[in-house]
Amino acid sequence: MSKSAIIEILKRVYDPEIGENIVDLDMVKEVKVDEKNGFVKIKIALTVPECPLTQKIKKDVSSSLESLGIKKVEIEFTSMSQEERQALLEKLRSLRARREPTQAESGKRAYQGSPVALLPKGGIHNIIAVVSGKGGVGKSTISALIAVELKRRGFRVGVMDADVTGPSIPKLFGLTQRLEVNKDGNKLLPATTKSGIKVVSMNLILNEQTEAAIWRGPIVSGVIRQFFTDVEWGELDYLVVDLPPGTSDAPLTVFQSIPLDGVIVVTSPQELARVIVAKAVNMAKKLNAPLLGLVENMAYTKCTECGSTIFIFGKPKGEEAAKEYAVPYLGELPLDPLLVELCDSGRIEEYQATELSRVVDRIGEVRVELYQLKAPKVR
Length: 379
Ligand code: ADP
Known about the structure:
37% of the residues lie in helices and 20% in strands. It is built from 14 helices and 15 strands. The chain has helices at 3-10, 54-66, 82-99, 103-113, 139-152, 169-173, 210-213, 217-229, 249-257, 274-286, 318-324, 337-344, 354-365, 368-371; strands at residues 28-34, 39-46, 72-79, 124-131, 157-161, 180-181, 188-189, 191-192, 198-201, 236-242, 262-267, 291-297, 301-302, 309-310, 329-333. It has an eight-stranded mixed β-sheet, with helices on both faces. The chain has a three-stranded mixed β-sheet with strand order 1-2-3, covered by helices on one side. It has a two-stranded antiparallel sheet with strand order 6-7. α5 packs across α13 (354-365). Adenosine-5'-diphosphate binds at residues 132, 135-141, 168, 245, 297-298, 333, 335-336, 339-340, 343.
């Protein structure tokens, strides 16, 4: 009953979601052998606390040890630290790079399951789309704040402003420089914000911002597709895509061709009719990507004099709506005059959206960063 034999046998236990064995994933933190009493103690660090697949891992560990004749096993579960998770991501990234299907293969595979061929992701590991049922609820603001928070956590982040007919992302980051093309003259280079977030937006291409507003669906679709295929994004951990509100059919087809890893729905209490929330949720479902949850923006504000909570647009309905549509509720963001000021002066990166940091935590919990890093299933 040597320790190395135990570790060897544990290589047969796979993390069901990631598809790699728990030893290679550095999840096995300790193996203690009590030879005298035939007893083994194992400590396993989960990628996220209370991983729903704990029971499966436990069963697999026990039965693999049983094959070595070890019956008395104690398994302790802990969770990985932020650093350990980061190291795991790096490891998975290199594994994934080695196994990345070719462009032709990924197209073929997508055609089998969906009517739209998925575009290859290149060096982008996770694509998160942000949608809303109508304009003005703060979808762009939330997209930008999610990007800022991800950047603060050390990820390589990009924002694609796909709201082509009402692009507002560059203004939030104070970007005005026109985009340039690469040396070969065949790809656009994204702009870079102060903290290093890459941004592509129609506002950084057109001289007249009003031009895009009158475009018809097919042109809009073409532009969005090009934002994905003809931009030199490089390696990104996250690409946050700010979608047009209440997406119509033409761009929707394009979004179905972008391999999204998750969709976040933004609502606000002004969206009086639930119908609008329903529309956003249904659209998100049509995107064939995991619906990560719903965020309610401008849910309340704080009185600057006494600090009391004021529900300007009536009682927040996000949580209720989320329940009604069986979507996870990711929290709420207050209406904050400081945020308006920072957005208007292009300094959104200075805003500390603590509530949204909770949202990004939750994104981590539902394993967004791991979705695309899952090893291809070997059958
Ligand atoms: P959308 O992308 O849904 O059209 P925007 O993100 O452009 O909406 O936001 C609309 C307006 O509301 C902007 O002027 C923005 O600064 C403001 N805004 C958005 N969220 C908040 C908030 N939580 N507090 C204060 N103002 C906000």
